[in-house]
Amino acid sequence: MPARPNVLFIVIDQLRADCVFGALSQYIELPHLRALADDAVRFDCHHSVTSPCGPSRVSLLTGQYAMNHRAVRNGTPVRADTPNLATVVKDAGIRPLLYGYTDHAIDPRGLEPVDPRLQSYEELAPGFEEIVRMRLETDVTAWEDDLRAKGYDVPSYPDTYRPAGDTPDAPAFYAAEDSDTAFLTDKVLEDLPNRAPGWCAFVAYIRPHQPLVAPAPYNTMYAPADMPPPRAFALGETLHPFVPVSAARNPISGMVVGFPDLEPTPGTIAQMRALYFGLATEVDTHIGRLIDWLKDSGQYEDTLIVVTADHGETLGDFGLWGKVNYFDASHHVPLLFRAPGGARGHVVQAPTESIDVTPTILDHLGIDIPHSMDGHSLAPFLMGDTPSHWRRHSYSEIDFGNPIQPSGFQTNLGIDLDACNLAILRTADFKLVQFASDLPALLFDMNVEGEAKNLAEDPEKTRILLDLSRQMLCHRMRNPDGTFSRTMVSSRGLEVGAA
Questions:
Q1: What is the mean pLDDT of residues 223-234?
Q2: pTM of the model as a whole
């Protein structure tokens, strides 16, 4: 074994956990992810601490709750001095190689207002060495250049992702071997064989993120008629005021380019779900190529393999699309860790969070975890053990305001910008959703009707509601920014305490 293991850190954009293992898994083929899970440690109660893409990736890489990094929207800058996975491993002498994207809005302090890096939220997080440039909304990327070199007439975004036909499930204009997913994998497999052992690779797949367009055969791999229906509210359930505004913000027509009149009929919902499944299977196919290369090159046993998603996708559940909402489909994501010498086929039911991933990678590499990181190393779980002291709940938060163009929540519900946020606390049995505004709280019994039935007004559940509210308050009090929380300046000089 080399002195230091390789690191292959794969992030899939917008893949919900129950596609891999759970309610939807019987309808979708993901053989490579499931085979990896059988040879790794699987975390079944893993949640992203925020969404959408930008905030979730900031939390994933910095190990911080959104309440601490405060990059709570796509386009909200991240403080330049915030440690992240790349900056920390780079300081330790490891080159953090990026194949893909990070969705990082740059700290504007010290930059000229005309700096081009201040024109996109899809910029590069500090510390990374960008090997392959991939973006979703920015056209000047390595993938588009590759398509042009192959003779394709490449339109500007979003038409890059417009189906080449009259129906939403028409194929993409590019062949499967030329897709963004295939291209990224090709580039990783071209570059990594030239790296000395001990490499650290961050691979970020855009799919199955919308716009939902897939190359053949993935566009028709799944029949809409075979799709399970989305989850629905309990009969007679009164809609929370948040739900219709969220539904209007992210209609089904926004999931595909070129069909603005698309309506959420059972047929179109099934069609969108089938396209999403096809894109997820395409990603799985190419992850299989990466795993095969590791095995064929003799590096599989010497590589820390991490596979997760930045956030989930509601996929029509409860009439919603996208991920800026409080439902678990938006936050419950897969997490697989295969550590050299670690447990195999082990399933963890303890609650884990996206902020635990970076501390775990650092811990496995023998690098000190910065005090600014709120997450905890999962190292004991990777060996098949359970820590004696571990959290009993998971926590997520969402900001749904906009300081430049007021969101529908601000205009339709009369909520001030600073009150446009919610927090979620999940225990083994219950889930609390608390709003910063006057919107009523939500309480779900996850063992009965779950998110289909709000029990917050049930007098018999008042004690549970109060107890979860207390736990949420304690959570916020225990997790303020810890950058200097263990640092003291005194007559003895600078001293730093243990974590």
A1: 98
A2: 0.97
